Description:
The protein has a 9-stranded mixed β-sheet with strand order 11-10-9-8-14-6-15-18-17. The two termini are 29 Å apart. The protein folds into 2 domains: 3-140, Cytidine Deaminase, domain 2; 148-363, Dihydrofolate Reductase, subunit A (3-Layer(aba) Sandwich), CATH 3.40.430.10. β10 (243-247), α10 and β11 (265-268) form a beta-alpha-beta unit. The chain is α/β, with parallel strands linked by helices. The chain has helices at residues 3-16, 53-61, 86-92, 112-119, 130-136, 138-146, 176-187, 196-202, 233-236, 253-262, 278-287, 299-307; strands spanning 30-35, 38-44, 69-72, 97-100, 123-126, 150-157, 162-164, 191-195, 218-222, 243-247, 265-268, 271-272, 275-276, 292-295, 313-318, 328-329, 345-353, 356-363.
Amino acid sequence: MSMSDARYMALALSLGRRGQGVCWPNPAVGCVIVNEGRIVGRGWTQPGGRPHAEVVALAQAGGAARGATAYVTLEPCAHHGKTPPCAEALIAAGVARVVAAIEDCDPRVAGNGFEMLRRAGIEVSVGIGEDAAARDLAGFFLKTELGRPWVTLKLASSFDGRIATASGESQWITGPEARRAVHAMRARHDAVLVGAGTARSDDPSLTVRDMGVAQQPVRVVVSRYLDLPLMSQLARTARQVPVWLCHGPGVDGDRVRAWEGTGARLIPCAVEAGQISATDLLRQLGGQGLTRVFCEGGASLAASLLAADMVDELVGFTAGLAIGAEGLPAVGVLGLEQLSEAARFDLIETRAIGADILHRWQRQ
């Protein structure tokens, strides 16, 4: 690996991240085409998942792609879907070398893209930037292999881990800088997920604001009985920005019809121990094509996801105030008796955000 290979792959990875949150169910891939030390094409997976990154970069490069090196963050696809394979496009463009970060786990590709390129006489290198690509594409890999999306659990709390006072007041524990950072995080996920209690008490819009985004994440609410206010912001805007309601069996028919009338999508889920099964919830969301889900609580939903070992990343915003034991805890009842029963996460980042502290953790 040369320094230039690493540099161009780092650029391809940064381009790929531009597609996060808008290209599901496809992976967010980046591609850079270089000919004699000059970048002649750049691309990333476009909204809705097409065109693919390689196609965008090749169109920009035109004839300059002949004899060039293509840096791509995921193995070029090899199967005919709604569009021809990217491996074929690279071959037709006359690319001399392909540098890929990681092999695709999709069984329709899984090494076949590399084999197609090699049979055409193209030099193929794999593994540069692999760790970063594995992190960026983790949601796509989870959906492909396990049928569920990547889950980020975000909690904004006081120093003593409370998300509201005893009376339910929660706006605002953290400052405007932290709230803006949350909007940026929402924009990089396919969906924002909350529980019914949060939807009822906060009447949230769950949209990305002041970021100039063209495509909003799906708003998902988990409500076993579908007992949500029909005069809420979510109901009023369901035709403009998608709202999905995940509910249990035996829901009142009038509620179902009323919510369908708002334009919301209803997704039946299994119930386990008296509440929506976190495992089935995420299986249903994965089946709808979601690869990255941003959960913003509340306490019961956070506890449910943690208890099911379905949280891949924790994002905490901690403010410099204490609310006390009477306040609402950030995470509901887990029923742990031993510390060894609690899932451990590894710290990957900590920094100041305005007057608050951001800390990010990933599953061990």
